[in-house]
């Protein structure tokens, strides 16, 4: 059954999760220079907004600098931490706006190890090596989005079978059987198609390729191929 995945971007620190409503509040404070004015604009309770900000600051750090009264009438402004969070949230939204309009494989899993910003995710399609955001830790559950345009295909030949054992830039390599080839409209002047490969577990993996590549590699329904993608080319977000 086909369907479109729906995502709500969230940013987590320790036990707190910054969501879209929190971002709207911070954006309004930044625009109007006042928590009270922001709440009036958003039709929200001032006292609830105050408590929410204080609660978030316990885990994220100071978000709002408050100035009381005085000749200038007081006001509030965002800290550098808050502005960085706004930028991160907007970036994630832009990424997923693109993701939701691209053929992709969506799966979920749990971070089983993490060293620096690279980790291993135990996913529905097997172990995935991925660049993992700093706010996600070992043991966290995540969504994994693999865009079809970052997945490459190769014929399953002996010279490729030892790739999994080597240190290559494409550290995620799966053996697959082609179950669907769907020709699409031209993109950037090229005839393209979606290849869907059954890797034996979880959702099928999708790859966006040119018709020429399909012919050159002699790929047909039932062909055995290798499908691969780089650890740095997929998107990871917290699953809640």
Relevant terms:
14 strands; five-stranded antiparallel beta sheet; 240 residues; 5 helices; single chain; OB fold (Dihydrolipoamide Acetyltransferase, E2P); elongated
Tell me what you see in this structure.
With 240 residues, the protein is α+β, with helices and mostly antiparallel strands. The protein folds into 2 domains: 11-97, Winged helix-like DNA-binding domain superfamily/Winged helix DNA-binding domain (Arc Repressor Mutant, subunit A, Orthogonal Bundle), CATH 1.10.10; 105-238, RNA polymerase II/Efflux pump adaptor protein, barrel-sandwich hybrid domain (OB fold (Dihydrolipoamide Acetyltransferase, E2P), Beta Barrel), CATH 2.40.50. The protein has 5 helices and 14 strands. It has helices at 20-32, 35-42, 46-60, 80-99, 211-217; strands spanning 11-13, 16-18, 64-67, 75-78, 104-115, 118-123, 126-131, 141-147, 152-155, 172-183, 192-198, 205-210, 224-229, 235-238. The strands form 4 sheets. It has a 5-stranded antiparallel sheet with strand order 7-6-5-8-14, with no helix packed on it. The protein has a 5-stranded antiparallel sheet with strand order 9-13-10-11-12. Helix 1 (20-32) crosses helix 2 (35-42). It is elongated. It starts with 10 loop residues before the first strand and ends with a strand.
What is the arithmetic mean of pLDDT?
82
CATH superfamily of the largest domain: RNA polymerase II/Efflux pump adaptor protein, barrel-sandwich hybrid domain
How many beta-strand segments? 14
Number of domains: 2
Radius of gyration, in Å, reads: 23 Å
- How can the largest sheet be summarized? 5 strands, antiparallel
Helix content: 25-40%
**CATH first level of the largest domain:** Mainly Beta
Number of discrete helical segments: 5
At CATH's second level, what is the architecture of the largest domain? Beta Barrel
Topology as H/E string?
Answer: EEHHHEEHEEEEEEEEHEE
User: Might you state the CATH topology name of the largest domain?
Assistant: OB fold (Dihydrolipoamide Acetyltransferase, E2P)
Shape: elongated
End-to-end CA span: 23 Å
Which residues sit in consecutive blocks of at least 5 with pLDDT less than 50? 1-5, 164-169
Question: Structural class, from helix and strand content?
Answer: alpha+beta
Order of strands in the sheet with most strands = 7-6-5-8-14
Strand content: 35-45%
């Amino acid at each position: 059954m086909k369907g479109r995945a729906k995502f709500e971007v969230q940013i987590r620190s320790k036990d707190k999760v910054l969501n879209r409503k929190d971002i709207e509040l911070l954006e309004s404070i930044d625009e109007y220079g006042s928590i009270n004015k922001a709440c009036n604009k958003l039709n929200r309770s001032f006292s609830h907004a105050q408590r929410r900000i204080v609660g978030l600051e316990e885990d994220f750090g100071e978000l709002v600098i408050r100035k009381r009264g005085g000749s200038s009438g007081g006001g509030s402004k965002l800290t550098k931490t808050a502005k960085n969070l706004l930028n991160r949230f907007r970036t994630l939204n832009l990424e997923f706006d693109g993701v939701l309009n691209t053929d992709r494989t969506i799966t979920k899993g749990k971070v089983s190890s993490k060293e620096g910003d690279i980790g291993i995710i135990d996913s529905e399609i097997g172990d995935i090596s991925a660049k993992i955001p700093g706010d996600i830790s070992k043991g966290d559950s995540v969504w994994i989005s693999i865009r079809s345009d970052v997945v490459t295909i190769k014929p399953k030949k002996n010279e490729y079978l030892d790739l999994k054992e080597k240190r290559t830039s494409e550290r995620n390599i799966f053996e697959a059987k082609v179950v669907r080839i769907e020709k699409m409209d031209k993109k950037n002047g090229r005839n393209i198609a979606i290849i869907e490969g059954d890797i034996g577990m979880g959702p099928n993996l999708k790859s966006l390729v040119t018709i020429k590549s399909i012919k050159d590699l002699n790929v047909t329904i039932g062909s055995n191929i290798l499908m691969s993608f780089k650890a740095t080319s997929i998107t990871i977000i917290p699953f809640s």
